[in-house]
Amino acid sequence: MVVNNNVELSGNYASLESFRSGQQRRPVVRPAEQAPDKVEILQQQVDQLKEDLENTKQENAEKPKKKRRSIVQGFKNMIAGIKKFGVATAEYTVATARGLAYGAVGAIGVLGADAVYNGIKAVKAPQAVEEGAKSALKLLSTKGKVAAGVVGLATLGYHWFKASLNVSQRNAAIDHRWGSGHDEVNN
């Protein structure tokens, strides 16, 4: 005979009522002829594993094997890689220089506009005119400095983004010319 406790993950109680009453679930007893035979279960598992192994062998046999790359194609890939590195280095260097130069010009423009705006406000105040040069340093507000930094970084980011697009385009042309990259032809 096989004993099955029908124990749930929540405990030994069949329901909320049996929990409240304190009565635990009674084990269910089944005759041996109703219980599955362990040998039959193991045989079914072995059969399933054999079937899975055969399916795996068939899948592997259906996959075409990759051809080895020739020495010439390996040399072409190496040349293409060197060219792509040079293109990326040149594009990003130029983009950094342009981004810094144009960003600095933009930031100086924002700071100048902020100084003019604050200077016009300061002329209206009599004590600012009396202080003269001392108040000139106070003409740059924190908001103006932050705005100048944002303009400079945005300009640099724009030039880096443009450079990344140019690098991608030029790398695709190199891949096409040398037959390498994701469209690689294995001869």
Kindly describe this structure.
The protein has 187 residues and is mainly alpha-helical. It folds into 2 domains: 2-59, no CATH class; 71-183, no CATH class. Helices cover 71% and strands 3% of the residues. The chain has helices at 16-21, 38-62, 71-124, 126-131, 133-136, 142-178, and strands at 2-4, 28-30. A two-stranded antiparallel sheet has the order 1-2. Helix 3 (71-124) packs antiparallel against helix 6. It is flat and about 105 Å long. Residues 6-10 and 183-187 have low confidence and may be disordered.
Q: What is the fold's blueprint, element by element?
A:
Elements: E1 2-4, H1 16-21, E2 28-30, H2 38-62, H3 71-124, H4 126-131, H5 133-136, H6 142-178
Antiparallel strand pairs: 1-2
Radius of gyration computed on alpha carbons: 39 Å
State mean pLDDT (0 to 100 scale): 78
Helix/strand order: EHEHHHHH
Helix-residue proportion:
over 70%
List the uncertain runs: 6-10, 183-187
Per DSSP, the total helix count is 6
User: What class do helices, strands and sheet pairing give?
Assistant: mainly alpha
A few lines on this structure:
With 187 residues, the protein is mainly alpha-helical.
Key phrases:
187 residues; mainly alpha; 2 domains; two-stranded antiparallel sheet; 6 helices; flat; disordered C terminus
